[in-house]
Structure formats: C-alpha cells, structure tokens
Amino acid sequence: MEDLIIIGGGPAGYTAAIYAARAHLNPLVFEGSQYGGQLMFTTEVENFPGFPKGIMGPELMSNMREQAERFGAKLISEDITKVELQSLQGHQKDKGKIIVFVGKKKYETKALIIATGAGYKKLGLENEKRLSGKGVSYCATCDGYFFKGKDIVIVGGGDAAMEEADFLTKFANSVKVIHRRDALAASKFMQDRAFANKKISFVWNSEVVDILGKDRVESVKIKNNKTNQVSDLTCQGIFVAIGHTPNTQLFENQLKMEKGYIITEANTTKTSVKGVFAAGDVQDWKYRQAITSAGTGCMAAIDVERYLAEMKH
After folding, report:
1. pLDDT band at 287 (very low <50, low <70, confident <90, very high)
2. Which residues contact 26 (CB under 8 A, 6 or more apart)?
3. CA–CA distance, 97 with 84 (Å, rounded to integer)
4. CATH number of the domain enclosing 83
5. Are 142 and 285 in the same domain?
6. Strands 105-114, 276-278: pairing kind
7. 8 A C-beta contact, residue 15 and residue 117
C-alpha cells in the first residue's frame, strides 16, 4: 500500500512530488510515456520566475523531474489505464483505499493526486504539427512577446480567443481573427473590446485549411465556407484558440466534473472523493499557466500530508 500516488508528469505533478518527497511521503509518480506535459512542445519560456534569461520548456521540465527524483520520488514512465476511486470508499475493510492499474498491474494507495493536465484543441492539419513552436502557438500569454511587429492570425470566436487577440495587439502589428461563423460566441463585453481595437480585424465564415512556410509560418490558406473560395493570407504567426480538452477520461463517472474539468473544493485541491486531490490544468479552466499548475501541485501535496496525518488519529 502506497502513501501517495501522483498521476501526471507536468509542472503540477512534479511540484507535488517535490513537496511530498520532502515530507517523506515516498510518492510514486506515474509520469506517463511522455513526461513533461505541454511544456515539452514549448520553445522558450520567459515568464517562469527565477529564469531572467528564459529557459527552454523541455529543460525546465527536465529540471523539475530531476529535483523530484533527488528528494526520493519514484518515477514510472508508464500510463495509468484504469482507476477505481468511489467503488471502494464505502466498504469498511477497503476504507480509504484507492486503486490504479497499469495494464493488469495493480497499485493501491491511501491518497491520490491527479495532475494529468489538459491539451489544446488543434486544427488537425499536417503543417500545424510541423510548424508548432515555429509560428504556430496555442498560448498568447506564453508566446506573444516573440511576435513583436508581426502580422498574426488567430483562430476562434469565444472569450478566450478575444482575450488572446486583445493581448496580442500589445506586440503585433496586426491581428486577424478567423471565425467559421458570421458572429462571435464571445460575451458582449469581450466582443465590444475586440471590435473597438483598431489592430484587430475579422475574417468571417472562414476556416484555416492549411498553414504554409518552409521553416517558419509564412501564410495561411483560408476557405470561405459559404462560397468555398480559397485564398492565401500572409502572416508570421497563427494562434489557435478553440479551447482545451482536460485529460479526465480516466475519472469519468467517478468524480464531480464540469465541462470535463475536475471540481475541487474552494481554496483546496480536494475533489468529491475522499483521499483524491487534483492539481494543475486538469482542474483549472481559467489560468492554465505553468506557474499556477506548479502552485496547485504544492497545495495538493500539503493537502495530502494533512489528510494522511488525520487518518492516523
């Protein structure tokens, strides 16, 4: 029986592991077959405190991973295939037991931290993948600074897209919003702000069907879904802001969720099941930054430490 299992190998999972290991909880971390989360696909990270000259995303994650191991966290590079949370909570003899599976191998634990993160929804284009980090971005807060004086395209029509468009005008020469409908889904306030910004213009009833460029983004191919007319639009960057998908499929029907995000109690990382805690983008639909993920990872480890201490009494 483990004291603590952590699922996830991003900023939340590793920070939780660092704190838990230092508290002698001997955490077992299932970091997945691809460790590091979204930062593994990010080039330079300039807004993580402590790195005045910036740091490459993969290097930051490698440092966090090494730090967790240094304090004694046991890392397993495998994916959890199944979890049993609620089924055991009511049985007296199994009280407080949580079970996770890797294939047919079974692990039992007193506490569980879920830090499986969220993925950006993508356009699904071949060149999107090839040019990711080379002009294709999914986070204005992370990458806007690199587009000073550039012409940028942003795909989306919701609040997040309008917020990103507005933010990007601080750096960009121009921002063109490409939306597949003829009206935005964003709130009235966000729409008004975007329409009032002289740097933002709109391409309606259109979809990006290809992203062009040899080593960096040079233009996008747009198709008008009313006329089927295809045109090229020159730009040096494309931001995709069509939403996120939290990685919570494993926990469906076992934890309280809203729009796929795990619900945690206010000011804690406690979920709807005792002994189960959630940290990072898996429960944060609002901020979704590496630093906020790391912060909730710290909170989760402290919450677990207190929970296990109470179990002993």
Report:
1. confident
2. 2, 3, 4, 72, 74
3. 9
4. 3.50.50.60
5. no
6. parallel
7. no
**CA atoms of 264 and 273, how far apart (whole Å):** 10
Sort strands 28-30 and 74-76 into parallel, antiparallel or unpaired: parallel
Same domain for 154 and 231, yes or no, is yes
The contacts of residue 252 (CB under 8 Å, 6+ apart) are none
Boundary-marking domain end, from 240, 260, 277:
240
Contact call for residues 291 and 49 (beta carbons, < 8 A) = yes
CB contact at 8 A, 201 and 260: no
Residues whose CB is less than 8 angstroms from the CB of residue 311 and which lie 6 or more positions away in sequence, other chains included = 96, 110
Q: How far apart are CA 236 and CA 212, in angstroms?
A: 10
Integer Cα distance of 233 and 286 in angstroms? 31
Domain carrying residue 77: 2-119+244-312
Q: Please count the structural domains in the chain.
A: 2
| Residue 118: strand pairing partners | 246
pLDDT digits (tens, 9 = 90+) for 105-154: 999 999 999 999 988 889 999 999 999 989 999 988 888 999 999 999 99
Q: How far, in Å, CA of 116 to CA of 187, rounded?
A: 29
Instruction: Give strand pairing partners of 141.
Output: none
Kindly state whether residues 114 and 7 are assigned to the same domain: yes
| Location of structure tokens 């979920």 | 271
Active site residues: 139, 142-143
231 lies in the same domain as 286: no
Residues 71-80 pLDDT 10s: 999 999 999 9
Residue 141 DSSP SS3: helix
DSSP 38: G
Q: How far apart are CA 79 and CA 47, in angstroms?
A: 30
User: What is the C-alpha to C-alpha distance for residues 82 and 60, in angstroms, rounded to an integer?
Assistant: 29
Residue with tokens 């397993």: 76
Alpha carbons within 13 A on the beta-carbon side of 305:
17
Question: Within this chain, do residues 189 and 81 fall inside the same structural domain, yes or no?
Answer: no
